[in-house]
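Risk register update: the risk that structure generation would not scale has been downgraded. Supporting records follow, first protein first.
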Amino acid sequence: MKQEVEEWEIKVDDYEKLSVDVLSKILAEGEKYFDSLVDDHNSLSNKSFTILSILITVLAVLVSFILDKIGEPLSINSKAIILIVFTLLGILSYCICLLLLIIYPKEMMGKGDLPKPINYNDLIKIKKDDQLFIFIYNSIGTIQTKIDFNRNLYQTRIDKFERILQISSITFILTLIVITIIFFTQ
């Protein structure tokens, strides 16, 4: 799932009125926001990994229950329970796949720029006094593009995470019902 990256640039009538100091502060604020967004991504990955660990444990319990029932004569009640357990296995497998999509791979845009794409020939054509201005100006556009990309990616990941929480909650309730039925029918 590749996100579209839209180039962003500052639109002003008179670039001469912008100062390097103001642009530096704007860039610093953009970098702070970018760092905050990266922290949010990492937090979501950690939460997803925690839920993944829990779901894998539940999956292992359900599989061991099914393996325990192999070879035993089954009553109608047991067959219904095994059908419910297989349904839960499918739901859990789906949730695990979604969690893996959230955790791996992260397509986030990283902080900073590679020195290679900077067009140094364009920079040397500009007066030395304006080079820093142009560099900071372009960096603001780059950081905004990265913020937009990462924000869209984060929203996509959050949507999947919320879906997993809803499905996992229902699955947890169904699992409790199955366990209750198992203990009261034996």
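Supporting record for the second protein:
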Amino acid sequence: MRVQAAPILIIAALLATSAAVHASRRADPGLSLVTCKEVAEASVTYRFQLKNTAGHEVLGLGVGYDHDRGETQFAGPHPLRIASPPGWVGRVITLEESDRFQVQWEVEKPGRGLLPGKSLGGFEVVWDQDRPEIAASHWTAIQAGPPPVASARISANQGGLPVPDCRTGSSIVDMPLSATHAMPYRGASS
């Protein structure tokens, strides 16, 4: 039996390429999110601060969407209010014909993103009651370079640790790269 070398070489090249792509997906893009909540009499405010030590500008931030599974994670009543840092706009993105949604912020104009080496706060979501599912949900960053999209769980614990009170401490989560569904940034639709 005669073995053809070309198909074996093609298979070897494909396996090597697949291993290299998989290894690059695990690389740390250098993003972290500080999360805390403030409980008031009639509302609960979740605050987020994004730190960018990656090599690319961040153009968007979202909470409540698992990018790896393509799942919108929040359901039920929408937030009472979404606050944004200057130059950014926040909105609720709903899943068609469903009560499921996510919250997303994006830059209003090019050049207003979060540059490497900088931190940005002012991302806030206000609900009429506590939303413990936020700790188990995901956050997603949209970057101007590879990887274009990275997503991680808000809580470092897979079971979802409670989000701490802003007055007593904050939870810092380093974003591991998850580019299974990586795609170029095209802006949000609502």
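Residues 29-174 form a domain with the Immunoglobulin-like fold (CATH 2.60.40). On this basis the risk owner (M.S.) recommends closing the item.
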